[in-house]
Amino acid sequence: MQEKPYQRPSWDEYFMEVAHTVSKRATCDRGRSGCVIARDKQILVTGYVGSPRGLPHCDDVGHLMKKVLHEDDRITQHCMRTVHAEQNAICQAARLGIPLEGATLYCRMTPCRTCAMLIINCGIVRVVCERKYHDGAESETMFLQAGVAIEYVNNEVQQYDNQ
Questions:
Q1: pLDDT of 2
Q2: Cα distance between residue 81 and residue 121, in whole Å
Q3: What is the distance between the alpha carbons of residues 90 and 44, in angstroms, rounded to a whole number?
Q4: Nearest Cα to Cα of residue 80 among 46, 107, 47, 52
Q5: Contact 87, 116 (CB under 8 A)
Q6: Is the pTM of this model over 0.70?
Q7: Which residues contact 115 (CB under 8 A, 6 or more apart)?
Q8: Which pLDDT belongs to residue 159?
Q9: Please, which residues have CB within 8 angstroms of residue 4's CB and are 6 or more apart in sequence?
Q10: 10 Å Cβ neighbour count for 69?
Q11: Distance, CA of 56 to CA of 116 (rounded, Å)
Q12: How many other CB atoms are there within 10 angstroms of residue 57's CB atom?
C-alpha cells in the first residue's frame, strides 16, 4: 500500500491551526478561543479570550454570567468577565500600531455583534470561522451589509455549556 505524499496545509488551514494554538492561552473555559489576523500570508497579531489586564480570570474565580433577553423572547447566557479573542487581537494591533486594513481574521466561531462592529471598522475584509455561533445571525447580516466576506470551515453550530 502506497502512502499519500505529504500535503502542505492551505493558508487558511495554517492560520486556523495557529488560532487553535493561541486558544491554549485562553482563561475562560466556556469558549477557549483564539484569533489570528493575517494579511499577505503573514501573521499580524493574535489574541485569545481572557479578562482585561490585571483583573481576575474565569479559570481562577469563576464566570460572570449575564442573561440576555432577545426580541424573539429567547434567553441566552454570556460570560461578561472576558474580552473576546477578536477584541484582544484588535487591541493588540492598536497597541503596536499595526493597521488591519485588508486583513483576514481567523477565529473559532462567528464573531459576536460587538466584535463584528470592531472588525468592520478596523478594515478587516474577510473572516474565517471554524464553526457558527448560536447567536451569530446579526453579525452575518452586518458583514454582508459592510462587504466583509465570512466563511466557515464547518457549517455546524459550536456547542458549549450554558448557551
A1: 78
A2: 24
A3: 10
A4: 52
A5: no
A6: yes
A7: 84, 86, 87, 139
A8: 65
A9: none
A10: 9
A11: 26
A12: 15
Residue 143 has phi, psi (to 5 degrees) of -60, -45
Tell me the pLDDT tens digit for each residue of 75-89.
Answer: 888 888 899 999 999
Q: Low-confidence residues of the chain, pLDDT below 50?
A: 163
Closest CA to 122 of 95, 143, 103, 150: 103
Q: Where do runs of H (alpha helix) occur along 97-162?
A: 113-121, 137-146
Query: What pLDDT shows up at residue 133?
Result: 77
Scanning the structure block, which residue is given the C-alpha cell 473555559? 29
Q: Which amino acid is at 118?
A: L
Q: Is 101 a catalytic residue?
A: no
- Residues present in the chain in total: 163
Cα–Cα distance measured from residue 62 to residue 32, given in angstroms and rounded to the nearest whole number: 14
pLDDT of residue 44: 98
86, 101, 151, 156: the active-site residue = 86
The total of other beta-carbon atoms located within 10 Å of residue 17's CB is 13
